[in-house]
Amino acid sequence: MSQIFTKILLKALHTKLFHIVFSVILLTLGTTSVFSQEIKFTDSIKLNSIDLVKVKDSTVQDSSKKKKPFLDGIVNMKAKDYEKMDQKKKQLTLYNEASIKYTDFDIKAGKIVYDFDKKQVYAGRIKDSAGNFIQRPVFTQGSNVVEPDSIVYNNVTGKALIWNSRTKQGELNIKAEISKRENDSVFFMKNARLTSSKNIDDPEYYILIRKVKFVPKKKVVAGLSNLVIADVPTPIGLPFAYFPMTEESISGFIMPTPGQNNRQGYFLQNGGYYFALSDYYDLAVLGDYYTNGSYGLRAESSYAKRYKFNGRVNLRFENNIQSEKGFPDYIKSKQYNIQWSHSQDAKAAANSRFSASVNLGSSQYFRQSVNLNNVGAGLNNNLSSSVSYSKTFQTVPQVNMSLSATHSQNTNSEQIDMTLPTFQASVDRIFPFAPKDGVKKGFFKNINLQYNIRGENRIKTADSLFFKSQMFRDAKTGFQHSIPINTNFKIFKYFSVSLGAAYNEVWAFNTVKKYFSTIENEVITEDQKGFEAFRTYNFSAGIGTTIYGTFNFGEDKKIQAIRHVMRPNISYGYTPSFEQYFDTYAIDATGLTTEEYTKFDGGLFGAPGKSYSNNLGFSLSNTFEAKVKDNESKKGEPKKVMLINNLNLATSYNLAADSLAWSPMRISGGTQLFKQKMNINFATTLDPYAIDNSGKRIEKFNIDNGGSLFRMTSANMTINYAFSSTDKEKKTDKQNLQNGGTGDDLFGTSSDLSDSRQSLFNKDEEETEKEGNYEWYATKLPWDLRLAYSVTYSNSNRENDISSQSLMASGNVELAPRWKVGFSSGYDFKQKGVTFTQLRFERDLESWRMSFNWVPFGTNTYWGFFIGISSSVLSDIKYDKRQLPDRVF
Predict the structure, then answer these.
(1) Domain residues of the chain, as ranges?
(2) Residue 252 and residue 269: Cα distance in Å, rounded?
């Protein structure tokens, strides 16, 4: 009987073994990321033993409610060397590549031991033949992966004691000498190191905390702590601290930056509150305050929905005060700026699209603001906006419709042009005589027509009248209908002929009336409201061909061949006179002298012409390509190199003109050199007629007046050269582009002054993620350089003058890994002075970032220095000092 009882008892223990092991795993590692170094498995944790489970008589019926089975799935357990059950020590041991899988749990380790007498579980590493620890435990639950060194845990009390534990919460890594787990959600630590460094064992800095209460994914409450940099303790510390540890965005205060400038006094800038409103959008409200009474308010919000849309909104307002009341230099001004960018994902809708790019506000905002994202933004002379919605109706024929609002603002003249809104619609081309099989060949079958309509409500106003009642009273409204009819066909096999006619009808709701006022003794132009319309039509024709020419020099030459492609074209256009829309008005009190005008002068879509035109146009497009031997080609094939791209010549002759029939010839072209890194574009205007002493064109060819065949009246050329040591394409500065800039760093880079952790340089994502050796460069330094040269020549009145000429440059040099310097500058040869100049310096200290930004001279002198921790959780540990530009309004 004793032998039978013993067998039954062992069988029961073996059955409960899986329950015990996996209850330990579930309670130990289910929700907590805890790490520790290798420790000796001892009896340092004294636990009360629990009596073994007794076997009940199978004949006794259990009237209680049956419990749900503990195991919810199949248990898979294995080890490479052995699976050992020691009945005397009451231990289960899995050794070498031990693993256990159960439902969504998967634990792998060098060694897994469970002592069912003490109710303790141990998972740790083992040593190889050289004495090195290998096979670090890996615990996986769903998408969570934990890699500790070892852990000792009691599954009855739920407590654990870990030496040198390591855990990662958000951006922070925590390492403690001794960690004690009270339950699933509370840990106590002693002598803990808190850092955002990726290297938790040897961080470049850490915050040493004597005592810590740690609640995973919620908070860290710390006692006495101080900052340690490069293992050197600093006097910077706190008696206590609180760190939120959440994986979701949370609301909180944004600490302001103090400072002082010469015009507004002492200030607090970029302070406010961040609202974590939703997973889809947020809001940051920031403000500035100056001791002389100036203040600024800003609201910034970003929003996004995957596969739908994303965007950003910036609202800025500043009340700027200079000097004191009673002084002659006292000035008070209010400036504002509104920016909105919205883009729709291509997957959101197949037949409709909405987009927005808005940058409007006070013309002097970027020049008078004392808190700019980019000091170079004050050099931009134009602000523009566009909000549009388009939709395609899948009908036969297809109909396209769009509704948009645009805005253009000149910051020098403070003039604003807006369309609120612009409506456009078009019906797709219709081929009324084409066969049903779709084959269109010849003059008759290729006849097609289309219908287009465009309506505008255009406003032209000044900055001071923006969104006031007078702005809307001066608006002009109109519609334009157009029906183009075209066809094309070939003649003589190589010539393409196109014929066309167009009918236009304009509906105008704003016209003018001119008359001589005897009271004011001058001609009065009076605006008229009401519906008016005019209709015009014209005819056009053209013939062209393509000519190919190849000049072969031999396959043994460096340049094997040059290919020349010419596309000549002759066009004809006829527009009759529409004198029925013209009237006369007296220009003096006698009424004998009159002039003609049309009530549609200054209309949105132009005005009908009184004189008819009968023009012949001539144009020639040229392309030159070279076939060059490619020494790098493995197959020995030559490569094509573009020599000149689109060398265009165009002029026209008016058959109906009685004088000055020839129009000036326009020549333009462009090319790319040095592996397409240098772009060169040029254009010039050549006039065949001479001019008199007053600069007016006369009916006499220039060559007959003692000059050359053509008289160059204007010319311009631009050269852009961007190259680098790595030949990587530089990223566009989106904030600079939204402010009205060019998107590059020729006029300086932009920086968010409310978040100086952002780098001044555009880092490549692959570079930031790359781990390797960060020693000094031996021979090559990564660098990039961008050059832009522009020159304009004017000679319309024999002035023979270079009206503008400038050279711009920007570049960056990486002196060592994580150490960069950059500059933006230029020279104006016309004004004989240096253009906007910015010098940049940045040192990436892995977890820290240090930068210096300096505008040494000009109207916007500025310098700023920053050093601080890059992590957003510890972003308040920083030193930020800057001098705002000393502007004169």
Answers:
(1) 2-42+70-244, 336-438+453-474, 482-663, 665-768+777-883
(2) 17
